[in-house]
Amino acid sequence: MRALRHEPAFVLLCAGQALSTIGSGVLFLAILLAVYDRTGSGVATSLVFLAETAPLALLSLWAGALADRVDRRRLVLGADVVRAALLLPLLLPDPVGHLGLLCAVLAAQASVDAVFRPAFAGLLPQTVPRDLLPSANAVWATAGGLAGVVAPLLGGALYAVGGLRLVVLVDMSSFLVAAVLVALVRNMRPPKTGDIPAQPTTRSAVAIVRSTPALRRFFLAATAFAVANAVLFPVLVPFLRGTLQASAAEVGLLFAVLSAAGLLTAPVSGPLMQRFGPRVVYRAGAAGTTVGLLLLGLSPDIDTATIAVVFIGMPSVCFGVAQTTLLQQAVPDSQLGRIFGVLATLMALVKLVAAVLPLALLSLLGTRGTLLSAVVACALGTVVVIRERPEQGTAAVAQQRRRAVRHAIARR
Predict the structure, then answer these.
(1) Complete domains list, the chain, with CATH
(2) Residue 228: what pLDDT?
(3) C-alpha angle with apex 67: 65 to 73, nearest 5 degrees?
(4) CA contacts within 13 A on the Cβ side of 349
(5) What number of other Cβ atoms are within 10 A of residue 27's Cβ?
(6) Angle formed at CA 217 by CA 213 and CA 218, multiple of 5 degrees
């Protein structure tokens, strides 16, 4: 990873976006606290979650096509500036008292975020040589893990000291600093376009995925693991507190261990991929996550559950980093925005379903049964990953993708 220090474009891009990610996490927690303190309503906080998620499901496909049409650096820069400006209404007196306005601001933020995500995913490979992509993705995963740890602590402290207004100012500042750092990015590598004509439309994105078996398997596995995650977290606290009779301190320790496991593993995932290859790490991460989740579902006590989450946090990070790396290596830069737009759409739809699915499963299966249903989803994703033959992997994606796009063009 030391070689990345000599890639100034990557350092500036990663530092700026890590800072804005922390700012966004700080604000989201503060908004949830402010809404609940003001309303005392779980329905109100659910509306906040909906405002954050729905635009991603609705706009990510279009945003992916946009990211393949325009300069991605300028798109990321513009997204940071616009997200800072959109926070201005939250500086008005008592924004929480106007829940509709608050949700509108969050929905607008999420809409811009839908544009940002595929643009950033497509921009990252232009900042490093191809052979450093595994290390670059590992560093970015580490930054995301740090943000996940720092943001809740900082958000709670800032909200306690200065209320929502102070947190909004901090988040605005993080976006503006990120924009300045992106503006300083220079000498990026030209995108690799492959030998097919670019068709930056949502239709071409769906056509590529539907007509390319290797990509379909990637997305099927990603969806299965997202479903498992969506089922797991809403029932995890009831499982720990109700079924295992864990104390609040023990639950907090378990979540800290889960975050720490992922955070400590992210820097290692890059060297692992350099040594064994992304595909081996991808398969091992899928299998390891399934085993850890099964161990958690069968845990008789909180001590066993705490050990189990280590075996969830470590391989799941490796799986995610390897998955991103494989997609970036398989798909030409001119197509990355659309492919990651499709992935973001699927993940957002899964999050929306997650608001309902655990409720239905809990009434049918109980807490432990619902948790074990997440194991089933994870296991199905693992089967898809492990059964994929080498010739069906990234080396075959380019050829299959060329045929898919030519077919989509011919149909026009």
Answers:
(1) 1-184 (1.20.1250.20), 199-412 (1.20.1250.20)
(2) 86
(3) 175
(4) 13
(5) 26
(6) 115
